[in-house]
Amino acid sequence: MFDELFIPVEHNPEHFEEYHLGSVIQTNSGTMPDWAQAHLCLIGIDHGGNYSGHEIIRNELYKLVCQNQHLKIVDLGNIRSGRTESDTEFALTEIVRTLKQEGVIPMVLGKNAAHSYAQYRGFEGIARNIEYCAVVSKFELRNNSYFTRICTHEPNILFNFTTIGFQSHLVDDDSVSAFKKMFFHPVRVGLLRNRLNEIEPVLRNTDLATIDLSCVKAGDNPASEDANPNGLSSEEICQIAWYAGISEKMRSFGLYSYQPELDLRNRSAKLSAQVLWYFMDGFYNRKGDHPSLHNEFLKYRCALESNQPDILFYKSKRTDRWWMEIPNPRSLGNAENTVMIPCTYADYQTATAGEMPERFWQALQKL
């Protein structure tokens, strides 16, 4: 059903060693592979036929080492550009939705991060209460930006929206305030320094994650018009991608804003390929680790001050990761009485001191 929607890619597995991804990934080189049996699908967006960035990234990705011989990854090629931008967005939305209905995780490559909106719409009609995480250097809630389109889209399927890595000198206070008033969670790049593990619980609870490569500092990522001297490092963005991949809940991933004409010796293309590699590596290291999936947990109950409800914490014996139980005030009939959200050991320490963790408070406000 996808044959006419995609431009095939040039690829010959014989050009790669058996330990390279290029010898394992099934590609649409003229014949569409069996994508319905895949775990992950790579998708490019054509951008009018005058953009070569995806092929450069693919060449770098295919040269990376395959760590798992049981992986099932398909490269569908590039979505053909429609007559209008709306046509291209519609095609991306429908393709993402179809893949998700088959249990396949799409990995979208795009030149323009605004296509994140179309990727988000792929959840429409098949999921609700979506948690979306955008790794960006800046955002705004005005001028019909894709952030505005996502936040105001009807029907509303958005439960939480987190921006990771924004830089205060690039974002106006009104946009930050508007985000917080909706109980969304903007995270400054400075807060991640030496505390990157604090963002893992956010990604553990995320359905859709997109990365705008301009969030990476120019020294590590020269191929962006919005490159800045400050930003996330190449190591940090790969760690974030790995956190996204290992999340049991993650069902869609996007990587945007590579501009090949600005690249230096394919440095940014290599980084893009490595971001994809770490997302895939995270996916193949999933542990099935959630309180709803197994019983190998230690439980701790913490009493808070000021007549606040007790908090029940769960610590996994498999991975040492933490969750906390939130009372659900909207529970009716057969609805769940509690909601389980990921947290950190630091949240547990806060609760043992009788204080309410900020993560707990934010969850209560949204419920």
Mean pLDDT rating: 92
Low-confidence stretches: 331-335
CATH architecture of the largest domain: 3-Layer(aba) Sandwich
Q: Tell me, what is the CATH class of the largest domain?
A: Alpha Beta
Can you tell me the CATH topology of the largest domain? Arginase, Chain A
Structural class: alpha/beta
The whole-angstrom Rg is 21 Å
Shape: globular
How many structural domains in the coordinates?
2
* Count of individual helical segments: 10
Order of helices and strands: EEEHEHEHEHEHEHEHEHEEEEHH
Helical content stands at 25-40%
Question: Kindly, what is the distance between the CA atoms of the first and last residues, rounded to a whole number of angstroms?
Answer: 40 Å
Number of beta-strand segments? 14
In CATH, what is the homologous superfamily of the largest domain? Answer: Ureohydrolase domain
Q: How would you describe the overall organization of this protein?
A:
With 367 residues, the chain is α/β, with parallel strands linked by helices. It folds into 2 domains: 3-283, Arginase, Chain A; 297-366, no CATH class. It contains 10 helices and 14 strands. It has helices at residues 53-62, 85-101, 116-121, 146-152, 173-181, 200-204, 234-246, 267-283, 345-352, 358-366, and strands at 6-7, 26-27, 40-45, 73-79, 105-110, 130-135, 158-166, 185-188, 208-212, 252-256, 297-302, 311-316, 322-327, 338-343. Strands 1, 2, 3, 4, 5, 6, 7, 8, 9 and 10 form a 10-stranded mixed β-sheet that branches. Helix 7 (234-246) links the parallel strand 9 (208-212) and strand 10 (252-256). The model is unreliable at 331-335 (pLDDT under 50).
